[in-house]
Amino acid sequence: MNKKFTVIVDTDEKIPHEFLPDEFCEGSIRKKIKTGDYCIVGAEDILAIERKRNLQEIYGNFTIDWKRFRNCLDRLSEFQFPVIVCEFPFYDIAKFPLDSGIPSRYWKPKHFAYRKHILNRFLMIKEEWGIEVIFAGSRERSHEIMIEIFKSTNEFLSSGQFNVAPDLYKSIYEYIDEKD
């Protein structure tokens, strides 16, 4: 059995997940992380998980904060296991700006046109930066997915094998293929 892992939660994370001690995890610590929001002790140079709470955050990253976010993507792509975990379902993109977190009084016609732009940016992140994008669908599911990624990374540190359950999440391409 692998030794237990300790989760590092970035000090800038505003609404952090809590990782309680269990058979796999020692718990979590708050510490400044160079890139991303979460990783585990001992894997700071190979694993980076960037969490996105909602489409409002993504909208900001993909528009007015694009230059800063591109720098983040550049840094993430240097990791062996870079991941963006979205706490909303993939299908929310098709409804944007509905359920995005952007108050309806601020909606403009351009927001509805951004649906395709958002999808294209996610595809670009996967194709140009090689960063896995996971649409967890909820905060609870994103927590479960991160734990599985931490377990797999911890196993990798011990054995050199990185095995994530094939049904843990769908690739962005699988979502797109479903539309056809």
Description:
- With 180 residues, the protein is an alpha/beta fold.
- It has one domain (5-179): Rossmann fold, CATH 3.40.50.
- It has six helices and six strands.
- The strands form two sheets. A three-stranded mixed beta sheet has the order 2-1-3.
- The radius of gyration is 17 Å and the shape is elongated.
- The termini are far apart.
Number of strands: 6
Q: Please trace the helix and strand order, writing H or E for each element.
A: EEEEHHEHHEHH
Strand content: 15-25%
Number of domains: 1
CATH class: Alpha Beta
User: Number of helical runs?
Assistant: 6
Q: How big is the Rg?
A: 17 Å
How far apart are the first and last residues' alpha carbons, in Å? 43 Å
Poorly predicted ranges = none
Work out the helicity level: 40-55%
The main β sheet shows up as: 3 strands, mixed
Helix/strand structural class: alpha/beta
Summarize model confidence as the mean pLDDT: 88
- By CATH, the topology is Rossmann fold
User: Going across the major beta sheet, what is the strand order?
Assistant: 2-1-3
Question: What is the name of the CATH architecture?
Answer: 3-Layer(aba) Sandwich
Supply the key terms:
180 residues, alpha/beta, Rossmann fold, 3-stranded mixed β-sheet, 6 helices, 17% strand, elongated
Q: What's the short version?
A:
The protein is α/β, with parallel strands linked by helices.
Write the layout of secondary structure elements.
Blueprint: E1 5-9, E2 25-30, E3 38-40, E4 47-52, H1 55-62, H2 66-76, E5 81-86, H3 92-95, H4 109-129, E6 132-135, H5 139-159, H6 172-179
Parallel strand pairs: 1-2, 4-5, 5-6
Antiparallel strand pairs: 1-3
